[in-house]
Specification:
transmembrane, cell membrane, Na+/H+ antiporter like fold, antiporter activity, about 375 residues, 20 helices, membrane, about 75% helix, mainly alpha, single chain
Amino acid sequence: MVLLIGVLISERASRTILSTAVLFLLAGFVLGEGVLDVVPIASGDPIVGTLAELALFSVLFTDGMKVGWQDLRSAWRLPGRALLLGLPLTLLVTAVLAHYVAGLPWLESFLLGAVLAPTDPVFASAIVGRKEVPGKLRHLLNVESGVNDGLALPIVLVLLAVAGGTETEGWALAGEILLGIVVGVVVPLVVITLDRLPFLKAESKLQPLLTVSIGLLVLAICSATHANLFLGAFSAGITVASRGPEYRREFEQFGELVTELLKLAAILVFGALITPDFLFQEIPLLGWVFAVLAIVAARPAALLVSFIGANLPGKQRLAAMWFGPKGFASVVYGLLVLESGIVQADYVFHLVGLVIVLSILAHSSTDVVIARQFDDEDARQPTT
């Protein structure tokens, strides 16, 4: 029923402050244990981790296909600033806020900063999807969000290992990360090479399933070899986009629909975990102050520094600084922290959950309003 309502209002949502993401989040909250108890889900239930894992794998796979090497080479300066300078600065500012405002120890503060550093433009789809928004800004947000999930993941894994939250440490952890990248590169190369042999060729109507088979094969091999499946997914997406752009085009619509379905389902489940007690009793006042500052101060301050000397108009600069919505990567990384059992795991997860809730509400309700501020002259500016 929630999916049906979301689809029926999606066209209007694309033109107003309505948001399907907010709809699923609120539906999960109302249907969860804290209100109607229709969907009795707890954080330790297997379905939570499995659904979040599949959703993030799908997100990273499709995100990787948006940022092939050719895309990065065509206009890399602004995304490069946001990724190589903005991402570490966002992590650092968030960690400082977590330590001095929320009261977390330094290690857990940096872990929280790494969890909250990635962005997800799906919650600000009017910005990246509207033609009146300048192409330079859309390209910046698309590339940044497509890459920063994968860049933040190794940092989260290393910090979790240092905090004692994983059984894999040191060289074994590095091996899992490296093996995931290798699997993500080798599998697509082999499959694409096979498909291009003269005696092997996928039927045109089944061509999108070839890319699906690549994703499933990467998932299976990573699971069997204990390679990091998220980095495997991200590497596989980039490899497909770089080695066979035609596969990306054929997979695009089907892949986006599957990913969107998994993401909305994950939001629903995540909303069911957010109870009234979760928000108003288990998070102190300083936790709320931290959550607000993490949204309105951390990323804007980081990108303000990153864009010094950049060729980006002021209006677009402000939009990029504001639109850093927290999404599925942060949800899944937060669940990884919760399941790790480290000393501050519960408090860190509560702060992650609160920031994501506030981010979804704030960014999904302001994307259309800000998108309308750009006129046709801005939209015709080049993307390079």
